[in-house]
Amino acid sequence: MRRVxxxxxxxxxxxxxxxxxxxxxxxxxxxxxxxxxxxxFDISRNLRCPVCTSxxxxxxxxxxxxxxxxLIQEKxxxxxxxxxxxxxxxxxxxxxxxxxxxxxxxxxxxWLLPVLVGATAIVVVVGMTRRWLAAAAKAEPAxxxxxxxxxxxxxxxxxxxxxxxxxxATGEDG
Amino acid sequence: MFDxxxxxxxxxxxxxxxxxxxxxxxxxxxxxxxxxxxxxxxxRLAAVAGFILATAAVxxxxxxxxxxxxxxxxxxxxxxxxxxTWVKVVTMWAALEGSILLWSWLLTGYxxxxxxxxxxxxxxxxxxxxxxxxxxxxxxxxxxxxNPFKVVPLPPLDGPGPNELLQNHWMMAVHPLLMYLGFxxxxxxxxxxxxxxxTRRPGTEWMAQTRRWTLTGWGFLSGxxxxxxxxxxxxxxxxxxxxxxxxxxxxxxPWLTATAFIHSVQVQERRRMLKPWNVLLIVTTFSLSIxxxxxxxxxxxxxxxxxxxGPVGPAFLVFFLLVTLTAFGLLALRWDDVRDRADLDSIVSxxxxxxxxxILFVTLxxxxxxxxxxxxIVEAFTGDKVTVGAPFFDQTTLPLxxxxxxxxxxxxxxxxRRAEQQRLARNLALLTGALVVSxxxxxxxxxxxxxxxLTVALAGYNLMSLYLLLSGALxxxxxxxxxxxxxVLRSYAVESRRRVGSMIVHFAVVIVAVGVAFSSGYxxxxxIRLDFGSSAEFSGYTLTxxxxxxxxxxxxxxxxxxxxxxxxxxxxxxxxxxxxxFGEAGRTVPTPAVYYTATHDLxxxxxxxxxxxxxxxxxxxxxxxxxxWIWVGGAILLFGTAYSLGGGRRPATARAVAGEKPxxxxx
Amino acid sequence: xxxxxxxxxxxVVAAIGALFAFGLLRGNPDDRNITSNxxxxxxxxxxxxxxxRYWPDYGETFSLQAHVGRPLVINFWASWCLxxxxxxxxxxxxxxxxxxQGVQFVGIQTQDRDxxxxxxxxxxRFNLGFPNVLDNDSLVGxxxxxxxxxxxxxxxxxxxxxxxxxxxxxxxxxxxxxxxxLR
Lengths: 174, 667, 183
Description:
The structure holds three protein chains of three kinds.
Chain A: H1 2-23, H2 38-44, H3 63-77, H4 82-93, H5 107-138, H6 144-159
Helix pairs in contact in A: 2-3
Chain B: H1 6-33, H2 37-66, H3 73-78, H4 85-90, H5 96-117, H6 124-145, H7 164-167, H8 175-198, H9 205-235, H10 246-271, H11 275-298, H12 312-333, H13 335-338, H14 350-382, H15 390-410, H16 421-444, H17 450-481, H18 485-495, H19 497-521, E1 524-531, E2 535-538, E3 541-552, E4 556-567, E5 570-575, E6 578-582, E7 588-591, E8 593-596, E9 600-606, E10 616-625, H20 628-645, H21 652-658
Antiparallel strand pairs in B: 1-10, 2-3, 3-4, 4-5, 4-6, 6-7, 8-9, 9-10
Helix pairs in contact in B: 1-2, 1-6, 2-5, 2-6, 5-6, 5-8, 6-8, 8-9, 8-11, 9-10, 9-20, 10-11, 10-14, 11-12, 14-15, 15-17, 16-17, 17-18, 17-19, 19-20
Chain C: H1 2-26, E1 47-49, H2 55-58, E2 61-63, E3 72-77, H3 82-98, E4 104-110, H4 116-126, E5 132-135, H5 139-143, E6 151-155, E7 161-166, H6 171-182
Parallel strand pairs in C: 3-4, 4-5
Antiparallel strand pairs in C: 1-2, 3-6, 6-7
Helix pairs in contact in C: 3-6
């Protein structure tokens, strides 16, 4: 039993050594002392982790991200509003820190472009639809005898499906 | 006799496969142009031989990985003796060169399958040649730019092993495989669309012959996206599954356009409309899959998961531009053949709803594409660095998703041509009723956030829609058949696989939507400190840090905390969040522990180190409601896709009996 | 018509190609070469505990406020950061040149919580003569809008931040910036 305990301890020590030496290397960090609440995480989800590539402060395990979460919690405890906390970081890092691009300046463009694409798509489709609707209105109504012939042909085609080649008449919708 | 050296053997296979791809691409097109059947056959044989050689290359790579042959560059750079066998197998697609090998192999496999099974048609030789032309690119990159079989002059005794995050979860064996199967599957309709343009046959032939391939590719891509989300959830330690990271976005965009495509082709099948548009969609889907690889393998956009720089990025860029230019140029050349001469009776019809699908998915793709590329565009023009993050994508796409859900409910209920007023009014009344009732119910039950509440309302609306669809199909059959409901249901499910499959898929989408809405809208995050022996409260649970632990396998060291979870004094589960360390040179990877339930997940991640002197741990604790339903929905979606593909061709009698009429269509 | 369409497509594809070619040529996107918001603004002040070897000359705490009035070089580093090892001797060399001319250097160890032993080893290894402090909770780093380490700021005699250098600082950069500040 003793030997097992000693061995476990030795292994733990080896692991701790390995883990401890790596702990500073931006992966896993020593313990920040504060408890962090849900609101701090919600705020940090909208802030970019400065040392990471496209990760939020909430998502990153980098040390600076952990410290920033603690800092946000402290600001909350001091009674600051969400807007004030965003402003605190914005004053230092500029708009770059905001994952939610502000709706002004050059950022406005990124908000407008998808709207523009959507609007263009609608305009194009409406334009085409009008043309098609006009085409359908112009088309003469089929006379009953023709319709009967088409129906007969369709029934025939359905009964002998191997002969169809285009497949549109019998194609199932889904 | 002589030593079998794996490196040169693999290189030789790749080079020969490359040569065969070049031959097949040229011979197929020349053979088709000259109507030379022998040349066409030899191109098809080249496709089969190419697959055999690519398989040989994969076998050689696997042999090198499994026997720890560090004289092979890729093995030396990405494998490790101590890794378990499954990790070694998976290492083949854990890094750039290997994943291109996998992609090439699957591509040759699909091409060979096409060469053997595709029905004889004027399109076939061109389509196979285009597949082989795509092979030329991939195998060319493999042979000349990123050869994983290069020989290391002085082989190391051991390698660093694959990326820690990748060997930390078995899902890594599945996700890339599904994604490449998806991309490669969607190459087939692209090849046929090009063939249709070349041969001036832009009718429904090319889509009829690729319907199964398209749906298979779409299914694999959908599976890859869900699997990737689950991998993130289980590995990355922040309790989420989708971060709108550029790497995620670029695999998502082809899915968006492919989704638009599988809906839009039905308009062409039925009404001979949207011919150029459908070609455009499949070309865009294929281009986006190449563009995505370029963006993530070149470091042009920053991403957590980027594979790093190198000459492969520029090669993919050139190929992307070439594909785009050729495909769109060809479309312009053939414009007069492809142009629609369509007519539309009413916008309130099935075809009208598919036009809506196209608008929505194009806008979604544009939002994701522009958001992903915006920092690059701004930097190119002004030199400034700007950030576009997850909140942007959430805010722009959420309203669109709700519209997608709305359209998904009404669209399938609309008949082709035009809707009958009375029936439409009745259906709309029932749908609106379901919308209001489920929305109000959600509100009364405490769902007071806008998006989750709207999602619940739309979920109820969609369930009503599915009920109407099913009853619309079954009630007349019941009347006619004069047999038990179960029997009628079963025979309907067997006869109308495509329709039933689509209902299952739409049902799955509703489930995923609800899971996403609640897990993102009502998730609770906290960070708590726990001394060993002490407890803390979190969302109704009591977490007690009982002990620390350490495990050691040849491949890794793990250290973590044993956390007992109780609720109202009753034990619930024991969770072991940990840190994993793979090899001495590796980095530690926090590995979360998750308690899955149907209503919510409890997710623990270790935010502090653990050693023999540790007296406390810092835990990130997340409670996210209904998140499991995303994975369940993903599985149902795959089942639905498979269901609609299954069963082979329907017997002719079944088709005749089924009547082939959409519900409510004028007789 | 056909030609015009194809020309249009070619132009669009070329534009997309140009954008991505720019992306490729720009190099690593992780270069956080972002114009700092601090330039032209008063330097954020701080008071941080000094490492023991500087106590005789500077006391136990280094307060930036007390040193305003002289050109300042503020260097952020961490014990795990490889480029920091590259620039430390350069900084020590410059300190020996510019210190006597009235420039104050200060090193701030940041994003390196509780790594005091590693900090001492780092300082001893390069025998850093200028004062070094530990920013244990990295808050000073946030005040200075740090993106990573190493980063170096130059502050003029009036206490305004005039320049920021990202990545390991070189003798040429130091000569240029300090030459301008001392003129």
